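note to self — DONT lose this again. spent like an hour looking for the file last time. sequence + predicted structure for the chain T wanted, 255 res
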Amino acid sequence: MPLEIITLPCLSDNYAFLIRNPASGETALVDAPEAGAIKAALSARGWGLDWILLTHHHWDHVDGVAELQETYGAKVAGAAADAHRLPPLDLAVEDGGQFALLGEQVQVMDVSGHTVGHIAFYLPGSNAVFTADSLMALGCGRLFEGSPQQMWASLSRLAALPPHTMVYSGHEYTQSNGAFAVTADPGNPALQARIRDIAAARTAGVATVPSLLQLELDTNPFLRAGDSAVRAHLGMEAAEDAEVFAEIRKRKDNF
């Protein structure tokens, strides 16, 4: 029986994700922006909480951990490299490592850039990757700690996952990301169609996360530094891909 994954709005524009094994009744959470919304969602379903998986240390991804642990006794997993600034970990994981969760194997990927020590959780059995503020819907996280070269390497690793993978990212930024994306990739009809679809979804109050990795490959300018049309538009035909990415990120920072 496949795992059930629920996108859960938190705070003003964050997402957390509940992962449920219907057969065993075990439940995990990816990131804990706040306790209240998560407890309400669990209570409404009559679920407990067994695990909390943390992608990085920023407050809007960890603030609910202590209260959720107190209520449910959940164990916490996060990056060993970031353990000094995460809530106390029951399971410290490293890049390339794997662990069992809800009857599936989880692969750990270092996706540093937004922060150093940021990780993603890839569940190949469920065709899902939880990327938080690394690869985002039509965007990527601002580089608070890492370098453009680090983030480009991280995004390239994520881009190499199977294209049918669903990308569960950490914020509802997709509409504003689209407004920028079209300035970097103006001749992309797939991007233009996606922007229209996003507008309709948000008008209807529908989340734009998760998104299909193939759609990100086709439309997300931060994954398209090697695309000839993007490079030509930026006047960077001879540049390295990481340099093109850095220019796109700089433009987004100033957008």
